[in-house]
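User: Can you write out an input/output pair for a complex, sequences first and structure second?

Assistant: Here is one pair. Inputs:
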Amino acid sequence: DNPSVTAVAMAKNIAKIGLVGVPDAPGVAAHLFSRLSARSIDVDLVIQSLSHEKLNDIAFTVSTEDLLQAERIAREALVELKGQGLVVDQMVAKIAAVGSGMLGRPGVAARFFQALAEADVNIQMIGTSEIKISCIVSRQDAERALGALHQAFGLAAVHSDE
Amino acid sequence: DNPSVTAVAMAKNIAKIGLVGVPDAPGVAAHLFSRLSARSIDVDLVIQSLSHEKLNDIAFTVSTEDLLQAERIAREALVELKGQGLVVDQMVAKIAAVGSGMLGRPGVAARFFQALAEADVNIQMIGTSEIKISCIVSRQDAERALGALHQAFGLAAVHSDE
Ligand SMILES: C[C@@H](O)[C@H](N)C(=O)O
Ligand SMILES: C[C@@H](O)[C@H](N)C(=O)O
């Protein structure tokens, strides 16, 4: 019924890490992700929004297997960058909708967010591209969120715990 | 030389709008994007990172042609949502790298950010997916950023002012 979205997927085997209050200056993101890459930590989402007073947060997700090591690296990077704090949350899941038909159809994102709202799911983070809407929700909301999107877009859901 | 990234693109005909300090509660993102969609405003990136003290920022990009109308709608939504403030910036550009080979190769994001750092480009916002790294930079840094990524990944750049 709505060809703009062709699949909805969920990944629960993930964790969120956020560096809070790092300097909003060239080289900061590079520093963090070079450190992670040097230890072969695979990062899925990287999300950074508006800066405030020359500081910003940089959030990213990793698999739960990598969390321990990723957190250690993130903490070292935080100190090196003189950031303010670290956020770590394992109780998260990624919910994503994909579809080549999204492009130029503003109603799709609205419908995605509305479905989650009606299921009383709080959206912790959002990252989109022209053909994909990804968001992070609490792990306890994940199944409910997936079902709501399934219904909103008339699709079969895909579990990808990887 | 690096098959993980197959293209680097830039879009300059865009503007950034951010709602600052809106409640981090179900329905907030839905409210904003329903308002935008109702007036057929096409949104490209939507980026939302960590919340703080039950508030969050929601940032998004639109084409410069839509900026005037999008800003009006965003302001109305901000009042309805009892948010703290609005950020609007026309002097931005989107720089993106795409490549199916990025998946599972943490060094790609590191290299992307390092290239921008070495070109002294400040990264304002970041949103990634498994096959795409998108970031927002100042419009005056856009060409330099594109050139740096071109060099880092050994690729021809694509202008897409749409
Ligand atoms: C915060 C971080 O992204 C910084 N602006 C940088 O360019 O690296
Ligand atoms: C901030 C906004 O994303 C809110 N958390 C919502 O779910 O709508």
